[in-house]
Write a structure and sequence with these properties.
The complex is a heterodimer. Chain A is α/β, with parallel strands linked by helices. Chain A has 10 helices and 12 strands. Chain A folds into 2 domains: about 150 residues, 2-Layer Sandwich (Nucleotidyltransferase, domain 5), CATH 3.30.420; about 190 residues, ATPase, nucleotide binding domain (Nucleotidyltransferase, domain 5, 2-Layer Sandwich), CATH 3.30.420.40. In chain A, the strands form 3 sheets. In chain A, strands 3-2-1-4-5 form a 5-stranded mixed beta sheet, with helices on both faces. Chain A starts with a strand and ends in a 27-residue tail after the last helix. By secondary structure, chain B is α+β, with helices and mostly antiparallel strands. Chain B has 3 helices and 4 strands. A 4-stranded antiparallel beta sheet of chain B has the order 1-2-4-3. Chain B is elongated and about 55 Å long. Classes of the chains: A alpha/beta, B alpha+beta. At the A-B interface, helix 1 and helix 2 of A face helix 1, helix 2 and helix 3 of B.
């Protein structure tokens, strides 16, 4: 069976075509993406992002069909991101999905974005039943599977870890191309001084907005030299690279802690990291150190699947469709709030 | 290529600001498809009402708006034009017969 997947909950527009054959691994027929990159110092606003998605969706769908040589008659269903995410961008993609469904006479499958990440991560890495750390610009959740639902064990209480990093990139006017988080990672590699930042783990959850406030204040002090230059306790000037490094070390340590807590609670040895922030090699390294200490292992995917994409929507959608799940046209809306555990994972036992 | 004509509709005292978009289309099937795709999203604000009419003899889709204020009307119709752009482009470039010709389906 073949599914078309459309993703546009944030600034990445993704289109994917996937084939499921019984007894064989999923086959990726097409996975293309176009990102709306905002100028340095700016984030992406819903209106502009939706406009970007509207301009690119037809081009990407056509290219996807052309590259994969898939015929409309061979497509079984059209999957789209129902949520969570930003309202206008979600709607701009959903309406294209609906129209395609009507023109082509295919059923629609609304997919939870988080479940898309999880299922694609499981498929690509082969991790059987891991604790999942889902970290992106919009989401930060520690998830474990139990009785047909992806249960949220811990999460960010205020802003996502990726949002914290992205907003700090704006403070430093770091380029958003290809992604602010990627550029922070490169700068952090050149950082030498670990500046002390607040550490905000609260039980199974964590909080990032306070840390952002402090690191923003430090950046302001660094950039202006007021009220006095930003120095380490030894008297060395703190650089922008040091701040990037310190921020990453702090927030990643927090993520490792809450992931470890979930692993201990659930009795799992596998960690699967999904979501855009999951591309970060330092996070993967820190998680790996913790997992190995516990006799376990870390699974992660590359940027084709970590970063928002259409293939994960097609994959999770097709899994649901095969259990008989369909989204009727009248219900093919979008929602900004869609909890991961709201989805009944009928395709697993 | 579809064009839109905007005309003022008879006033409803509760929703005094109104506008009708008339969309001539190549077929009734397309008019129906577009209406069904657009209908799924409800108006977010209770101060705006949206209804549709399809004319029986010619394939024209009419989208009727009425709102309590001019600003609400403008915001709602701006959004509709943006959605229409997407829907029309999908119909134009990704319909089954178009793809058959272009990609040799």
């Amino acid at each position: 069976m073949i599914a078309l997947g459309l993703e546009g909950s944030a600034n990445k527009l993704g289109v994917g075509l996937i084939r499921h054959t019984p007894g064989k691994p999923a086959e990726i027929l097409s996975n293309i993406r176009h990102t709306f990159v905002s100028p340095p110092g700016e984030g992406f606003l819903p209106k502009d992002t939706a406009k970007h998605h509207r301009s690119w969706v037809v081009t990407l769908v056509k290219r996807s069909l052309k590259e994969s040589a898939v015929k409309v008659k061979d497509i079984d269903c059209i999957c789209y991101t129902k949520g969570p995410g930003m309202g206008a961008p979600l709607q701009s993609v959903a309406i294209a999905a609906r129209t395609l469904g009507l023109l082509w006479g295919k059923p629609l499958v609304g997919v939870n974005h988080c479940v898309g990440h999880i299922e694609m991560g499981r498929e690509i890495t082969g991790a059987n039943n891991p604790v999942v750390l889902y970290v992106s610009g919009g989401n930060t959740q520690v998830i474990a599977y139990a009785e047909q639902r992806y249960r949220i064990f811990g999460e960010a209480l205020d802003i996502a870890v990726g949002n914290c990093l992205d907003r700090f990139a704006r403070t430093l006017n770091i380029s958003n191309d290809p992604a602010p988080g990627y550029n922070i990672e490169q700068m952090a590699k050149k950082g030498k001084n670990l500046v002390e930042l607040p550490y905000a783990v609260k039980g199974m959850d964590c909080s990032f907005s306070g840390i952002l406030a402090v690191v923003d204040m430090m950046a302001a002090q660094l950039l202006s030299g007021k009220p006095k230059p930003l120095l380490t306790p030894e008297g060395e000037p703190v650089t922008r690279e040091d701040l990037c490094f310190s921020l990453q070390e702090t927030v990643f340590a927090m993520l490792v802690e809450i992931t470890e807590r979930a692993m201990a609670h659930v009795g799992s040895e596998q960690v699967l990291i999904v979501g855009g922030v999951g591309c970060n090699e330092r996070l993967q390294e820190m998680m790996g150190l913790m997992a190995r200490d516990r006799g376990g292992s870390v699974y992660a995917t590359d940027e084709r699947f970590c970063i928002d994409n259409g293939i994960m929507i097609a994959h999770a959608g097709l899994l649901a469709y095969k259990t008989g799940f369909v989204t009727p046209l009248e219900e093919s809306t979008c929602t900004q709030r869609f909890r991961t555990d709201e989805v009944l994972v009928k395709w697993r036992d | 290529m579809a064009t839109a004509a905007i005309t003022a509709s008879p006033a409803d005292p509760q929703y005094p600001h109104s506008l009708t978009i008339s969309l001539p289309l190549p077929s009734h099937h397309l008019a129906d498809t577009i209406q069904r795709a657009l209908s799924v999203d409800r108006e977010i604000s209770p101060f705006v009402q949206r209804t549709y009419t399809t004319l029986p003899d010619s394939p024209i889709l009419q989208i009727h708006y009425k709102a309590t204020t001019a600003r609400m009307l403008r915001v709602a119709t701006n959004g509709m034009f943006e959605s229409l752009g997407t829907v029309l482009r999908v119909c134009e470039e990704l319909d089954v017969d178009v793809l058959e010709k272009e990609l040799g389906e």
